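Annual report, structural modelling task.

Input specification for the iron/sulfur cluster complex:
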Amino acid sequence: MQLTNRAQKVDSKPMNLKELAYLPAIVSGMATTFKHIFRRPATIRYPEVKREFSPVYRGVHLLKRDEQGRENCTACGLCALSCPAEAITMTAAERKPGEEHLYREEKYASVYEINMLRCIFCGLCEEACPKDAIYLSDSIAMSNYTRKDFIYGKDRLVEPFPRPDKHINKFEEDRRLNWLDGRPR
Ligand code: SF4
Ligand code: SF4
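The model returned the following structure:
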């Protein structure tokens, strides 16, 4: 019984001597290889070479600080509420006397986490934020070996401030340079 009308008849005639030698196939394969030798490669040598991203590219998030280095986020939860992937979780805390130089508002996020495996980089969190606190940068999420390493906490999200002298991590260095360039947008 025929299950589909797209069935095709297979030509099962025996191969001739030329076909048995695989010569035409080898020549045609080599011709294709040589044709591509002189073409511009479609791939790049990442991570040494990086592609230019579109100006509207949305990458890993940054939690912004103000010009005095205080965290902008006030843990209002609007970003988490607007996130369609439910990727954001946070814990709010009250700013204590003496912490005015750390947090701009009286309430701040003592814990702020984004699950990068859930995130679809839609940018809705950025649009929902009333405090200019969260931005999507043009850094890509780094590869990791375990799921828990894709949960980015404040240590990886908060914008570095003041300008650090040295960085142990290339990702952090890229984030800092992007920030100094006037990015993220
Ligand atoms: S970019 Fe979109 S999916 Fe990712 S955390 Fe923000 S709102 Fe959620
Ligand atoms: S990042 Fe913005 S929207 Fe999210 S909790 Fe902080 S202040 Fe609110």
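Strands lie at 61-63, 88-94, 107-115, 134-136, 151-152.
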